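Figure S4 source data
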Amino acid sequence: MPRLHFWYEFASTYSYLSAMRIEGRCAAVGIDVIWHPFLLGPIFLAQGWTTSPFNIYEAKGRYMWRDLERRAAAQGLPGVHRPDPFPQNGLLAARIATIGAEAAWGPDFTRSVYTAQFAKGACISDPETLAALLESLGQPGSQIVHRAQTDPAVKDGLRKSTNTAQSLDLFGAPSFITDDAELFWGDDQLEEAIGWAACPKTCARRLPSC
C-alpha cells in the first residue's frame, strides 16, 4: 500500500486543517498515513525566528487567521477560536502523540488536541487538559501524561523526529512526504500530495523536466 508521511506541529494552524481530513482522503484512495509529530521551534530558531512567522509579520498573521476561518468553514469544522497565547507550547502534546504514533488512538488524540486548541481555545500545554482528552478516547490519561513527562525514551523519540525533520529540509508544517521522497508543504498541497502518493509515475510525467 502506498504511504504518505504527515509531518505536523501542534502549534501549526494549517496542520489542524490537514489533520482533520487527511486520514479519510487517503483511505478513499488506498493510501496509508504515517503520522509524525515534531517541533518547529528548533527549525524556526535556525532561521533566526523566536516565534511564529505569523507573529513576526503582522499582515501575514491577520491574513492567516481569516484564511483559517474560511478554510475551516469550507471543511465543516467548528468556528476558529484563536488561542491565547499563540503559538501555544505543544511539547507535552507532541510527546504524547509520539507515544500514540505506535498505537491506534494516536490519530484520534491528535485530532482532539487540534479541536480543543483551535475550535475551543483550550490550553494544550496543560497536563490535565491532555489527560482529559486521552480519557475521552478510553485511554489512561494520567498514566500516559506521566510517561510523556518522565520517560527518556519518549523524549528522545520526539527529539529524533525533530532532527529527522531538519535532515529532510522541512521548514514548516504541515509537510507531506511520499514514498519516493517527494515533498509537499502546506494544507493547500494535501490533495496534490495524495495524488502523487497514489500514482507517482503518472504525476512525474507531467513535470516540464520529464
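Figure S5 source data
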Amino acid sequence: MNVRKVLLVEGCVNAIISISKLAVGLSTGSAVIVADAIHSLADLANNIFAWLAVKIAQTPADDDHPYGHQKFEQLAIFVLASLLVVVAFEVLVSAVKRFGEPVTQSKLGLIILITTVVLNIGLTLWEGYWARRLNSDLLKADASHTLSDVMTSIAVIVGWQLAALGYFWVDSVFAMIVASIIFYLAFSLFKRAIPILVDQSQFGRGELMAAIEKIPAVNTVLNVRSRDSGKGQIADVSVTVSASLSTIESHKIADSIEQVLAEKFDIQDVMVHIEPDQH
C-alpha cells in the first residue's frame, strides 16, 4: 500500500457517498443534504488533485526542477482550498434562496445518510492508520478532513430531521453552518500550504546564526537562509574561516555546520559555502 493507493480507495468511497447524499437531498428537497453532497463532491475532487500531486511530487528531480517536485503536493492543497471557498459560497447562496421551503421525510434516505456516516468513520480510522504507517502529511491532513465530514454529516441529519418535522427554516440554517465549516476547512488548508509555497522558514535567522557561530573554527557567519520544501527544511549557509586552513579542514567545518543544524533544528538538507577570512 502507498499514498496513491490510499487516495484511490478513498476517492471511490467518496464517490459512492457523494452520489448517495445527492440522491437523498434532491428527493427530499433538503438544502442542507444537497450542501453536504456538494461538500463530499469537493472531497472527491480533493482525492483526484491529491493523487495527481503525489504522483508528480514523487517524480525525481530533473533539469526543470532541480530541487524536486515536492511542492506540487502543497499546490494541490492550495487548489483544493480555493475550490472549497467556491463550494462554500455556492452552498451559502443556495441556503438563502431556499430559506423556509418545505422538506420531506424519508426513512430510506435516513438509513442511507447514517450509512455514509459509518463509512466515513471507517475511512477516517483506516486513512489515519496509513498516514502514520507511511508518514504522509497529506494523508494526515486528509484524515482530519474526513473526521470533520463525520461531524458535519451528523449535523446535517439533525437539521434535516428537524426541518422534516415542520421547522423548515432549520434546514437552511444548518446548510449555512455547513458552509461555515467548509470555509473554515479552506482557511486551514490555505494556512498549511501557503507558507511552504512562499518559502517561509520555521526558524528565525538569528537563532540559526547563533548556533553556527558557536562552532569554534567559524570566524563569521555571513548569511543563513532556510525554507520549507514540503518534505523538510532546507538551509543555505555562508561563513568565513581562517585563510590558512586546508581544504580538508574547511570541509570538516562544513560537516560540523551540517551536523549542528541537523541535531538542533532537524534541517537535513544544508548547502555550506566557505570563504577565507581576509582579515
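DSSP finds eight helices and three strands in the chain. The helical segments are 3-28, 31-57, 71-97, 107-134, 137-164, 168-197, 205-213, 247-265.
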